[in-house]
Specification:
With 285 residues, the protein is mostly helical. Helix content is 65%, strand content 1%. It has a two-stranded antiparallel ribbon with strand order 1-2.
Length: 285
């Protein structure tokens, strides 16, 4: 049963329309170059339109994998597909695994989260639903749905295995970079608790992360997410156009934030504190 007739799950014609427009998302993401403000994290400000951080993050990240799972369980039946190839199932599982961490675990592992502006929340939901539809429809019916079709687009087990390795390297690096940031916040919360016990005034505290990949760059969690989705595209092959769009969309959405964040670190701590660190792309910037 369709939730939105023709769109959820999407008909082939509507999916192709979505994919045509989806290739232009980098233009929207690049608009962040025009402003240093981003309504969450370090640049979050007090606003009546802010939402509690954990709840906003959870509700804006969940729609992606829920959309994909719904499409994977409904669209094949509509197209008379009894069983999908193992490649489709593995790729769908990787997507769901990533977002189970990002949506269900990440916000509740955080010692604290800044509020998120409703505009960021709404745009993230749109992105997740569109991305879940783009990838889910390809995996469920509009990409290869038989082993013969996979072979026809040049499938190789070695390439798929390489993609999995790159994906898991990115996933692991992303997780441990997140964990380093969480440990800084845990230490800060312990420090603040001691100050409260002493009756002292508590100021907001920031520091430059120094462990793990943070020894070499300021935003390894962003970079490793790009690595992760590069692996995903490699596994699916060049014809996996929704994965390519996802990677490019993330790159153009996250790069301006990293550049702005690099300037913030420089202004906050001075050139000497971040000397020798790349901002986000090792050996380049």
């Amino acid at each position: 049963m369709a939730i939105v007739e023709g769109w959820l799950p999407a008909s082939r014609e509507n999916w192709e329309t979505l994919m045509w427009w989806w290739q232009f998302y980098p233009i929207f993401g690049s608009m962040q170059w025009l402003s240093s403000w981003y309504g969450m994290g370090k640049t979050s400000v007090d606003s009546k339109l802010n939402l509690p951080g954990r709840i906003a993050w959870f509700t804006m990240e969940v729609p992606g994998f829920i959309t994909l799972l719904y499409i994977m369980t409904t669209l094949p039946t509509q197209h008379g597909i009894d069983d999908l190839p193992w490649q489709n199932k593995v790729l769908a599982s990787l997507f769901v695994m990533h977002y189970i961490y990002r949506a269900l675990f990440f916000p509740f592992l955080q010692p604290s989260m800044s509020p998120i502006h409703v505009s960021i929340w709404a745009s993230a939901i749109f992105f997740q639903v569109a991305n879940g539809t783009a990838i889910g429809c390809w995996l469920a019916a509009y990409g290869p749905t038989t082993q013969a079709q996979w072979q026809a687009q040049g499938f190789s087990v070695a390439q798929f295995a390489l993609g999995l390795v790159v994906f898991y390297v990115g996933l692991t690096g992303n997780y441990f970079s997140d964990e380093e940031l969480r440990e800084i916040r845990r230490s800060e919360m312990r420090r603040q608790e001691k100050l409260r016990d002493q009756g002292k005034v508590i100021d907001k505290h920031y520091e430059v992360p120094q462990n793990g990949l943070f020894k070499y760059m300021l935003f390894p969690h962003y970079f490793m997410e790009w690595v992760e989705w590069t692996g995903y595209w490699i596994a699916g092959g060049l014809a996996f156009t929704p994965a390519r769009c996802f990677l490019l969309n993330e790159f153009f959405a996250m790069l301006p934030r990293a550049v702005s964040g690099g300037k913030w670190y420089k202004e906050k701590f001075g050139e000497e504190k971040i000397k020798g660190k790349w901002v986000i792309i090792p050996g380049v910037y």
